[in-house]
Amino acid sequence: MSRLGELWHSPEDWDYFTVPQRHADGRVIHWPRGRVLGGSHALNATIWVRGAAQDYDAWAADGCPGWGWEDVLPWFRALETYVPPAGTAPGDSRGTDGPVPVVQDYPLNPVFASIVEAAEQVGVPYNEDYNGGTLDGVSQQQINVRDGRRFNTWMAYVKPVEEHPRLNLRTGVLLQRVLVEDGRAVGVAVVPLAAPDGAPEEIRADEVVLCAGALDSPKILLRSGIGPAAHLTDVGVPVVHDLPGVGANLHDHLLAPVIAEATARTIEHPESDWSVTQTHLFWRSRPDLDAPDTQPIHFSVPMYDEGMEGPMNAFTLHAGLVRPRSRGTVRLTGPGVSDPVALDPNIFDDPRDREALLASLRQAREMVRTRPLAQDWGAEELYPGPEVRTEEEEVAYLHRFVTTYHHQVGTCRMGTGPDAVVSPEDLRVHGIDGLRVVDASVMPRVPSGNTNAPTAMIAERAASLITGGSTTLAATAAAAGAED
């Protein structure tokens, strides 16, 4: 966990980049995505966040009945084995015998203990369990680790059965398109990873379930001729089914760094398996909000971006936006597998996103000036830096250094309206039989926190839908729901 950044730009990273962002100084933003068994859960910081109850109730109110908080809570419970801090017990809303370990009982690096104290001094209360029903507050992160090592959904679900005779696992290939005949998905066409424009191999199936993520599931649908007819025609893809919402509604959480040098103490990294991020907080940028819209995340190292430089004995308080209003698109540039995809999150298109992230940035700067950091660690702000004083200068800093929180969603949104792609009842693609999408792309709105746990919840519910409720976790979730 201390070396998670080394996976970016590696062979395990699809190494995606956005198109130039007009409200971010024309920069392209790196979007690392997992090119490995386990997907992006194998690359991320393994932080487990359910989100706010209001997130899911908003899904239900926005055309997704059955996905409200009380509907999804039993699935969250069934997923996890929660290990709380020593001397405490899990609350009633937590799971204790699921396949995914969720650990909060680990030593806190001293700099993070001071960061927690700094947050409390600027008015953010400590929250012992942000997944226990109340999101607001500063907390020690809950993470997916076992025996001191990262743990992902591949390890939980697939590795135990990888030798099963009914499981056929193919690596080294790319999914070219879904095969559709008479309005029904009948299989997929794949091509070698080393020769993406080569002759495809057809694999027939009774049903196709796409789980390629918020960037690749819409790309595959578009290459299959399923999407906005005008766009497909423009890029030379024969139209199979006109479905306007495919690739629309792209949105992502955002970060902006506040970096401070520790001039009075050395920031310790005594164990190689200590994560460089251990705390975060959830906070409302305006008092009238019904749930937190910011999630600053903290690092014991300086998260220098391109164009930054400075000493290594420094830490980062990342301002974080988790309720973005801006929406973008995933679009093809051509019909071939090797043709690049245009990823446009349209950062700051809605100015309210910039206002919320600016409030989070100012809170982080205030934390650097508190006694636990300024006096005990000799913290001195490097970025934005003391020369950045006015709102105009702070906004310019955001435009220059805003970056991704790695939580893209929404591009195959579930719902019933004209822009919906999949049905909330069974996650089937509207207008195509035998085809489902099961990943973060189906989320109509991104939850207020890291998206790993909500994506796993969606997958578990989908497994129950596909099998008619005959999975072990389906039974566990049903029992948990009955207890409520």
From TrEMBL:
Keywords: FAD, Flavoprotein, Ligase. Substrate binds at Y405. Residues 213-227 form the Glucose-methanol-choline oxidoreductase N-terminal domain. Its cofactor is FAD. One of its GO terms (molecular function) is oxidoreductase activity, acting on CH-OH group of donors. The keyword Ligase applies. InterPro entries: FAD/NAD-bd_sf (IPR036188), GMC_OxRdtase (IPR012132), GMC_OxRdtase_N (IPR000172), GMC_OxRtase_C (IPR007867). It comes from the Bacteria. SUPFAM superfamilies: FAD-linked reductases, C-terminal domain (SSF54373), FAD/NAD(P)-binding domain (SSF51905). It holds the Pfam family GMC_oxred_C. Belongs to the GMC oxidoreductase family. This is Alanine-phosphoribitol ligase. It comes from Kocuria turfanensis.
